[in-house]
Specification:
Blueprint: E1 2-4, E2 7-9, H1 24-31, H2 33-54, H3 58-77
Antiparallel strand pairs: 1-2
Length: about 90
Amino acid sequence: MNTIGKLKHKKMKAILEFNLPEDSLEYKQVTKSNDMANALWDITHNTKKQLHYISEGEEQDKGIDLVFKKIYEILEDNNINTDELC
């Protein structure tokens, strides 16, 4: 238990139940969510920089920026902030 000032906070925990094999897709989505969060963070924070580093000119840089602008829009439309994930 963590204590901050006079407030005591208990660690949160949750129990997820699945009816396998019917819920196998949902089970896979939950168990792979950390891997997906890490992949999205890597895409949005590292991949763009790496692509700009190896690009061969201004036109490629414009294309990279356009693709990543769309990626950021999709994430925002789905209420995903990668800074909160990792």
